[in-house]
Each structure stands twice: as C-alpha cells, then as structure tokens.
Amino acid sequence: MISKKSVGIDVGIKSFTYDSDGYSTPNPLNLKKMLKPLARVQRKISRRKKGSNNRLKAIHHLQRIHEKIVNRRKDFQHKLSTAYANNNDVVFVEHLEKLNMVKNRRLSRSIMDSSWGMFLQKLEYKCKLLVEVSSQNTTINCSRCGNKVPKGLTVRIHRCGKCNLVIDRDYNASINILQKGLKIFGQDNLPQELWKVTPVEISMRSVKQEQIIQRFR
Ligand SMILES: [Zn+2]
C-alpha cells in the first residue's frame, strides 16, 4: 500500500504558495506590471469620445489584456492545484476570510483575494481530501515551540526568541497549518499512514531550514 501523505499550504503575495514540505511557488502575476497597462488603457478610454472608433479600439485592447491575465492565472492555478492533488492524500489550507475582499480597498490585494479563492476551489475539486483550518495565529505562532512571535507584514523571516527557530514566515505558517490540520483528525482518528510527517520530523525540517538560511546570510 502506498503511504499517505499530507501537506499544509500557506497562500501569500510574495510566494503564491509556501508549503510544509518547504517548497514555495512564486506568484506568476506581477501585480504592478499587470496594473500599469490596465490603467493606461483605461485612461485612454476615458479621454476618447463616446462612440468613436478610437474609443472602441481602446475598449477591445482592454478586453484583450483582461483575457490574457485571466488565462495566465487559470493555467498557473490548474497546474499548481493538480500537482498538489497528485502528490498528496490530504491537503490542509487556512480558512480565508471572505470579508477581507470587501474590507480592503487596495486593488492588488482584492485581486489576490479572489485569486486565492479560485485556487482553493480548484484544490477542493481535485484533492482527495481538502481540509480548511482556522487561520488564527498561523503567522504568529512558532511552529516549533508554540511561542507567540507577532510580526508586521514586511517581516519576512520568523525568528523565535524562545527556541531560536529562524525560518521563512510563510514556511512557518504552512507548518502551523499542517499541525492544526493533523490535530483536527486527532492521533486516534487519523490513519497511522497519515502521520508521515511527525512533530519530530517537522522540527528537524525547521532546523535544516534554519541552517540553510544561516549559510546564506
Ligand atoms: Zn520557537
């Protein structure tokens, strides 16, 4: 029998995903690059006379840019979700507050929110089992010792003053998501094979990651 495998995935802006296996996937859509041409064409449209040929041309141009963005995003999300579904039996993600989309008026942020939502839908459709865990403290908690390490959005590295763990903040979050997920099942309810990733292994991975980061400093 093939041993079962589980993974925790954190979604973000710098990396589209960072998972508890230590893999990160960069966001293929450079938001700044993407928004510039959109804004330019939108300005063109507003400057041109209603019903004019030039305005119509600009509107078509805008539609093409939109289509291109949508297709690139779809393609990327399909490939990534298929890879996670094929390589794992259980995938854990954090529950994304849908309210963020309304509350946050920044365009790039709202684009990312809807993008993550679509990605999670694809995952749900393809994975054998997709489990959402609460997003509470996934960024703050130290994945090795549980110590709370609050950090602003610009802080990219998780540094724990208690156990000295130093890893990427999104990697730390993804391990927390995995641990939360495994806890939901509970050791008693979870098939033994699912415990491929034990807390000991997780902390060993963290140490390895720490050494890698320190080497490049
Ligand atoms: Zn710690």
Automatic annotation (TrEMBL):
Keywords, ordered alphabetically: DNA recombination, DNA-binding, Transposition
InterPro entries to which the protein is assigned, alphabetical: Cas12f1-like_TNB, Transposase
Record domain Probable transposase IS891/IS1136/IS1341: where: 4-104
Entry's Gene Ontology molecular function annotations: DNA binding
Entry keyword annotation includes Nucleotide-binding: no
Pfam families (UniProt xref): Cas12f1-like_TNB, OrfB_IS605
Claim: Metal-binding is one of the keywords in the record: no
Gene Ontology BP term (one): transposition
Cas12f1-like TNB domain sequence ranges: 116-177
Top-level lineage group: Archaea
Protein family according to the UniProt entry: In the C-terminal section; belongs to the transposase 35 family.
This protein's name: Putative transposase in snaA-snaB intergenic region protein
Species of the source: Marine Group I thaumarchaeote SCGC AAA799-D11
